[in-house]
Design brief:
Distance between the termini: 34 Å
Radius of gyration: 19 Å
Order of helices and strands: HEEHEHHHEEHEHHHHEEHE
Low-confidence stretches: none
CATH architecture of the largest domain: 2-Layer Sandwich
CATH superfamily of the largest domain: GHMP kinase, C-terminal domain
Structural class: alpha+beta
Oligomer: single chain
Shape: globular
Mean pLDDT: 92
Largest sheet: 4 strands, antiparallel
Strand order of the largest sheet: 7-8-6-9
């Protein structure tokens, strides 16, 4: 995220999964309150409706992911809201335009610190290599072969710690440290960017073993960015998974809670599942091949 991405150049490798935010827009009459939408979702959809000048729209949100899970859920809600509101007005938007507007609403209108990567994941789907600079965002769609797709879905566990976190506060603290030219943070951000570029290449090559090693190193640098990022429970999940046969693990999102990704050795899948299952909720997933879907 800026200012790092504008000044130094940023890179994110991410993968969209089948956990969804579904936004429904109904036009006509006065806006009705939506009792089912979570508070954070309502803030996003209300802000999106203001951007579209749609005072007559009733908006509901359904989500199948926990709040504060570090899975990009708020960005998925923003992307779905923008896509639904555009369609309600009979407009068609490119995925990149949807992602940028969603991010502008979340950061500019609501003041929530964050980057663009989660918005692009929700808008495009699949595996992405995203390069950020002051000139804009370059999107690399990474084709995934059948084997790497199957390996990821079989050997990767997303473990929800049950601890929600406020990512904006952590991100702001890290960016403040960058502005102050903290040497630890500067080095960590540089390595995280380089590792993300290598992760994109590993995914493209269908090499989950190399990807797992890169994920492990990334976590060592991510946790050095701020004391609030690692937690005792996250460390316990990572440690016990490694003892059982994982070859890579990291917390997802800004961390301080949320979810942990664990990558098991091919012959230790059951053993890894057995040790992490008591420590958090394992969220089933498959890889989302497509991004936001606009339908009547």
């Amino acid at each position: 995220m800026p200012p790092y991405s504008d000044e130094m150049g940023g890179y994110v490798c991410n993968l969209a999964i089948t956990r969804y935010a579904t936004v429904t827009v109904t036009r006509g009459g006065h806006r009705e309150p939506d009792a089912e939408s979570r508070g954070s979702d309502k803030s996003i959809t209300d802000a999106a409706a203001r951007r579209f000048h749609m005072n007559d729209a009733s908006i509901s949100v359904r989500s199948d992911f926990p709040i504060g899970a570090g899975l990009g859920g708020s960005s998925a809600t923003g992307v779905a809201a923008v896509a639904a509101l555009a369609m309600a007005r009979g407009e068609s938007m490119l995925p990149s335009a949807i992602a940028e507007l969603s991010r502008s609403i979340e950061v500019g209108d609501l003041g929530i610190a964050g980057g663009r990567q989660d918005h692009y994941a929700a808008a495009f789907g699949g595996a992405l290599g995203l390069r950020f600079s002051a000139r804009g965002t370059e999107v690399r769609n990474i084709p995934l072969g059948a084997k790497i797709r199957s390996d990821i879905e079989r050997r990767c566990f997303i473990v929800y710690t049950g601890q929600s976190r406020v990512s904006g506060e952590t991100i702001t603290a890290v960016m403040d440290a960058y502005r102050n030219r903290d040497p630890v943070v500067l080095f960590a951000l540089q390595r995280i960017r380089a590792l993300a570029e290598s992760m994109a290449d590993a995914l493209a090559a269908g090499d989950l073993e190399t990807l797992a090693k890169l994920v492990t190193e990334q976590w060592t640098h991510q946790r050095s960015l701020n004391p609030a990022i690692p937690t005792p429970l996250i460390d316990d999940i990572v440690e016990k998974a490694a003892e059982a046969g994982s070859i890579g693990a990291k917390a997802l999102g800004a961390s301080g809670g949320g979810c942990v990704l664990v990558i098991a050795r091919n012959d230790r899948i059951d053993q890894v599942r057995e040790v992490v299952e008591p420590l958090g909720e394992i969220l089933p997933f498959t890889i989302a091949r497509h991004g936001v879907d606009q339908c009547e």
